[in-house]
Amino acid sequence: MTTPTHSRNNPELHSVVYRGGDENCATELGRLADLIGLDFITARPGTPAEGVLQFASAGLPPMTVEASFHELFAPYFASGKVRLHVRDDAADILELMSAVGSTLRGRIIAVVGAHGGAGTSTIAAWLARVLTNKNESVALVDLDPNSAGIDVRLNIADEPGCRWADLGGHGALLPGKLNSALATWRSIQVLSADARAAVPLPSADRDDGTRVIAALSQVHSWTILDCGILNPKVRSWLEWSDAILLVTLPDAASLATTRVKRELLPRAVPEIVVVRSVSSKNQAAHIADMLDLAQILPVRHLRGMDEDLNHGLSPGDRPRSGTGRDIQALAEHMKQVIR
C-alpha cells in the first residue's frame, strides 16, 4: 500500500497533537515525538490545530490519554480510539508515532558513479552544501560499500559522531535519536564509513542502508546518498530516491561505460547525467547526443581541488567558482525534475 506524504511545515496539520491540561503528559509525549523526529504541539482549548496522530486526556486519570488518527488518514491507519498510559505504554505510543513517521519523507537524491574516479563524493557533498545554504535541513550518507570514509574528504574524521560501525540491531532506527548522534559538517548531519567499516551490502536478514535512508528522510528536507560506483546489489537503495545523479567524465571510455550503466538504473526514478570536467556548451551538447539524452548537466573542473582538500578546505568552500555555479545550476535543475 502506498502511504501518503505530508509536509512537516504544514501549519494546519501537525504530526502529533496533544489536547489536555496534563503537563506531565505533554512533556512525555513531546519527548517521545522527538525520538521519532516528529513535530509536536500542545493544543490549548479553542485552538484549531489538528494532527495526523492525536492524543487527548480530558476526563482521564493522570498520565492517561486516548490516541486516534486523523480521519484524513483513515484508509491507512486503524480507526477508533485506544487508551494508553503515557509511561507504562511508551512502547505502544512509539509504535503509533513510528507509523506517522512513515508518512513523512523529505527528498532523497542518490549520487552514483558510472565508473571509478567519477567524483561522486565531491558532487554529493557540494550539493548538500548548496541545499543547506537555502535553509533546508540536509543529511549526507556515505552509502558506498567500498568507502574509506567521506568524513576524511570533509575534514571531520576526528569529529565525534556515529559511524556505520556504531549501528547495531536489526529493527527500525529512531529518526530523531539517530540524527542527533551523527557527526555534523557545515550544519549537515553526516553518516560516514571509517577504518572499522563501511555500509554493509543488504542481505536477506539485514539492510542497514534502507534503515538509515528511511530514518533520516523522516527528519530532513533532503537526504543525499553518496553511493560510489553503481552496484546492482544496492538497487533497492536507489529505488528509494526521488532522483538519481549518474556522474561520469567526458572521455570516450567513460561515456561508453555510462551508456551501459544507465541500463542498470531503476526506470521509475528520474535520471540526471552529470558530466564533470566539461569545458564548453558545444562539448556538453555533443556528449548529450552520444548518450541519446536531451541534455546533460556539466560541472566544470575546479583547478587546485586536491590541493584545497590537502590544506583543509572542503567541497563547497569556493561557491563563486565555475564549479560552484554549476553545482548551483544542478541543484535548481534537480528540483525542477522532481517537482
Comma- or semicolon-separated keywords:
11 helices, disordered N terminus, elongated, alpha/beta, Rossmann fold, single chain, 5-stranded mixed sheet, 339 residues
Cross-sheet strand order for the largest sheet: 8-9-7-10-6-11-12-13
| The CATH class of the largest domain | Alpha Beta
Give the topology string: H per helix, E per strand: EHEEEEHEHEHHEEHEHEHEHEHH
Mean pLDDT level: 89
Please mark out the parts with pLDDT under 50 across 5 or more consecutive residues, or reply none: 1-11
CATH superfamily of the largest domain: P-loop containing nucleotide triphosphate hydrolases
Q: What class, by secondary structure content?
A: alpha/beta
Q: Roughly what percent helix?
A: 25-40%
The second-level CATH architecture of the largest domain is: 3-Layer(aba) Sandwich
Fraction of residues in β-strands: 15-25%
The tally of domains stands at 2
> Rg from C-alpha positions?
22 Å
Number of distinct helices: 11
Sketch the major β-sheet: 8 strands, mixed
Morphology: elongated
User: In total, how many beta strands?
Assistant: 13
Please, could you describe this protein's structure?
With 339 residues, the chain is an alpha/beta fold. The chain folds into 2 domains: 13-101, 3-Layer(aba) Sandwich (Rossmann fold), CATH 3.40.50.800; 107-338, P-loop containing nucleotide triphosphate hydrolases (Rossmann fold). The chain has 11 helices and 13 strands. It has helices spanning 23-36, 90-101, 120-132, 150-153, 175-181, 208-216, 235-238, 252-262, 281-290, 305-310, 322-338; strands spanning 13-19, 40-43, 50-56, 64-69, 82-85, 107-113, 138-142, 183-185, 188-191, 222-229, 243-248, 271-276, 297-299. The strands form 2 sheets. An 8-stranded mixed beta sheet has the order 8-9-7-10-6-11-12-13, with helices on both faces. A hairpin with a 2-residue loop joins strand 8 (183-185) and strand 9 (188-191). Helix 1 packs across helix 2 (90-101), helix 3 (120-132) crosses helix 11 (322-338) and helix 5 (175-181) packs across helix 6. It is elongated. 42% of the residues are buried.
